[in-house]
Structures are given as C-alpha cells and as structure tokens.
C-alpha cells in the first residue's frame, strides 16, 4: 500500500462515519411527529408536546450544522497537511519525543476546542436557554472550560506522557504497560471520581435528615444495603435537567442525587429511582462495566501496538519521520469503525443492565412510582417519546421510555 492510498482510506472513513451518523439522525427526525403510543399519553399536554417537538427539531438542525462543520474542518486539515504543520512546530520547540507528543496533541486539542467554542456557547445560551433548561452563567461556562482544560492538561497530559515513554522504552510491548496504567487509572477514577473530580465543578452535600432520608434508609434496611453515602449535588447550577447516579464500590460506594431530581419528584418516586441505582450495584453492573472497559482497552492498545510503528501511517499524513503521535492520529481514525461496533455492543449490554436494574426496583421498591418518575423526568427534559428503532439500537444506553414502562408493567 502507498501512503497516498492510506490517506484516501482515512478520508473515506471520516466521510463514511459522517454520512452514517447523518443518515441515522435524519431517520430519527422522520419520527418526530409520530403518534404517541398509548402508554405514554398524558405525559405532555398539547402545548408542552409542541415545545418538545420544537426542541427536538432545533437540536437536530444544530447537530447537522456542527457535525458538517467539524467534518469539513477535519478533511481540510488533512488535505492541507495540517498534521505535518503542527508536527513541525512541535519539533521546533523540542527534540524530546515525549515533549513533542505533548505539544502536538496540546495544539490540536486546544485549537479544535477553541474553534468549536462558539457552538457550545450557542447550545447552552441560545438553545437550552430558549427552552428554559439553562441555569448556567457566562462566568460558570468560562470557568468550566478553564477547569476542563486544566484537567485535560494534567490528567490527559500525564497519561499521554507516560504512554509515549513506555513506547520509547519497550516499543512492541508498550501496550501491556499502557494497559496496566489505564487499568489502575480507571479503577482509581471509579473509586475517587466523586471525591476528586466532582468537587471541582459542583457542590456536594450529605443528604439532610428528614422524610426523604428516612424513606431511603427504610428501603436500604429492607434490602440489606449499607448506604451511608447519599449526596445531593447542585445540578441546578447549570441546568434544570435532573439525574441520579451510582459511583464507586466497596467503602467508596455512594449515590448522588441532583437537587433538581429532589425538587421534581415525590419521595416514593425518588426511592424508586434509588432502588434502580441500588439494583445496578446488587447485580454487579458496576464491576461488569469496569471489566468490559478494561478488556476493551487492552484490545485497543494491542491493535495500536501492531500498527503504530508502521511508517505508512506517518507518511500518509505527510510526515516523513515515523512518529508515535502521528501514528496515534492515523490509528484513531482507522480504529473508529471498530469502536462503532464495540460501542454498539456496549450499548446492547447497557440496555440489558437497565432492564435488570428496573426489575430490581420493581421487586424491592415500587414499579408504579418508578414509572411515574420516569415520565416526569422525560417530560422535564422534553425528551423524544418516539425515537427511531435503529437510532435507539446504535445510540441509546438506556431502553426507550416506552420499552421501560412496558417492562415495568409486565
Ligand atoms: Zn440505570
């Protein structure tokens, strides 16, 4: 194969992925006006339903705009040897391959984030604002960006530097070391995410004594679940959308409730949502997810180790010196069809886990309360009640509202 052929293959993959995503989005948009299934009637009144449809349409148009812009930018960057240009800048600054890699990715990631900044600003302060979701201020928005960049710099930069170093030391075997590093990092993140990362962006407070806490403790005692760590997070700082999640394991396990969730739902509904989260834990989903992502990471690093040293990858992107960072970019694109497939299967498993967690909530809490909470949450986030089947299969980590209700009513 010539570098030229590989270049066209890379461009082909980028465009094919864009076309496929655009096709799926268009397919999904064809169902925006479908009749609402009988089980979902009454969630919206007429005015709210109209609003939810406008929200979907606006989001859809916006996604076409952003994805088209980003694919055009990417293709132009390829055609005009952008990677070779950035590579030359990095090589001018240092001779050290680790520092070159860091500067190279630093420039690319920072520049692309900066260029797409107007889109994320528009999304938050125009679209989300218009539909009443946005609670974020420009100040919060800017600080979030800066904190995000700093985290990327420290955590992302640290990991990238170590992986480049492993590659320099061991070449073919580097994937084993990189895998071990990611495994340790993933487990630590799972354990300490709520303690280390969340506080940078949100305030968390232990759930106060009161009716809700008593109801939660009663449930926890009934199912023999030791639950000392229930936290409330100020999600309302950014958006009215509500959520709840489980994190950590062992002594670090905790449940986090958005303050918006507590505002929107009745006590029995919150307990039902919590029962669903406890279901994830009891059915060992947290551990299974961790194992799956580690196996997948190992597989990805192994394939990377087979390809990254090939000088074709660098030459295809217009760089004569075979280099790890250019290899990583080319690999990222070559691997993206595989990650579509693995992503598809991860979603299949995730939806299965959601059913299991719902079943757990049905057995140990209250199916009707969970149904009414799911309906309220869907209504308050103006969610799509009639998504397309194929779109759901590709993109949904949760079953649709209809599927979940039918399962809970079984
Ligand atoms: Zn769940």
From TrEMBL:
Q: Key word Zinc present in the record?
A: yes
Keyword list (alphabetical) reads: Endoplasmic reticulum, Hydrolase, Membrane, Metal-binding, Metalloprotease, Protease, Transmembrane, Transmembrane helix, Zinc
Pfam families linked: Peptidase_M48, Peptidase_M48_N
Transmembrane stretches, by residue range?
A: 6-27, 62-86, 98-127, 148-168, 174-193, 286-304, 324-346
Q: Which CDD domains does the entry mention?
A: M48A_Zmpste24p_like
Q: Domain named Peptidase M48: which ranges?
A: 207-409
State its cofactor: Zn(2+)
List, in alphabetical order, the GO biological process terms annotated in this UniProt record: CAAX-box protein processing
Catalytic residues in the record: 277, 358
Provide the CAAX prenyl protease 1 N-terminal domain boundaries.
30-203
Q: Where in the cell is it found?
A: Endoplasmic reticulum membrane
Q: What is its main location?
A: endoplasmic reticulum
* Domain of life, per lineage: Bacteria
Could you state a single Gene Ontology molecular function term? metalloendopeptidase activity
Residues binding Zn(2+), per UniProt: 276, 280, 354
Q: Which InterPro entries match?
A: CAXX_Prtase_1, Peptidase_M48, Peptidase_M48_N
The free-text note explaining how the cofactor binds reads: Binds 1 zinc ion per subunit.
Record membrane topology = Multi-pass membrane protein
Q: Which family does it belong to?
A: Belongs to the peptidase M48 family.
What protein name is recorded for this chain? STE24 endopeptidase
Native organism: Lutibacter flavus
Q: What is the lineage of its organism?
A: Bacteria, Pseudomonadati, Bacteroidota, Flavobacteriia, Flavobacteriales
């Amino acid at each position: 194969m010539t570098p030229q052929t590989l270049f066209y293959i890379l461009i082909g993959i980028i465009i094919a992925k864009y076309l496929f995503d655009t096709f799926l989005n268009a397919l999904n948009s064809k169902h925006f006006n479908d009749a609402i299934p009988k089980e979902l009637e009454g969630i919206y009144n007429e005015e709210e339903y109209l609003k939810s449809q406008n929200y979907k349409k606006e989001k859809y148009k916006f996604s076409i705009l952003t994805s088209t812009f980003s694919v055009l930018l990417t293709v132009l960057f390829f055609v005009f040897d952008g990677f070779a240009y950035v590579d030359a800048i990095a090589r001018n600054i240092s001779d050290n391959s680790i520092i070159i890699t860091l500067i190279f990715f630093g420039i690319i990631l920072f520049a692309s984030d900066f260029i797409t900044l107007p889109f994320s600003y528009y999304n938050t302060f125009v679209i989300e604002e218009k539909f009443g979701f946005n609670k974020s201020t420009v100040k919060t928005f800017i600080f979030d960006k800066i904190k995000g960049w700093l985290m990327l710099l420290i955590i992302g930069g640290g990991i990238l530097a170590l992986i480049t170093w492993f590659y320099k030391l061991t070449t073919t075997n580097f994937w084993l070391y990189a895998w071990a590093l990611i495994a340790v990092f993933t487990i630590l993140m799972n354990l300490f995410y709520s303690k280390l990362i969340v506080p940078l962006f949100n305030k968390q407070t232990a759930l106060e004594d009161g009716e809700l806490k008593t109801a939660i403790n009663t449930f926890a005692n009934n199912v023999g679940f030791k639950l000392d760590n229930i936290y409330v997070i100020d999600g309302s700082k950014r958006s009215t959308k509500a959520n709840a999640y489980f994190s950590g394991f062992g002594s670090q396990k905790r449940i986090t409730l958005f303050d918006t969730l507590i505002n929107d739902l009745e006590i029995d509904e919150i307990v039902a949502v919590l029962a669903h989260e406890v279901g994830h834990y009891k059915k060992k989903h947290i551990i299974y997810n961790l194992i799956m992502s580690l196996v997948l990471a190992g597989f990805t690093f192994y394939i990377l180790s087979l390809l990254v040293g090939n000088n074709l990858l660098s030459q295809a992107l217009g760089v004569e010196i075979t280099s790890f960072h250019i290899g990583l970019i080319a690999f990222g694109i070559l691997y993206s069809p595989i990650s579509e497939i693995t992503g598809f299967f991860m979603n299949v498993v995730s939806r299965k886990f959601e059913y299991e967690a719902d079943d757990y909530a049905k057995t140990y809490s209250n199916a009707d309360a969970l149904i009414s909470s799911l309906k309220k949450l869907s209504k308050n986030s103006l969610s799509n009640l009639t998504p397309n089947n194929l779109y759901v299969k590709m993109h949904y980590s949760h079953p649709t509202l209809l599927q979940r209700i039918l399962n809970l009513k079984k």
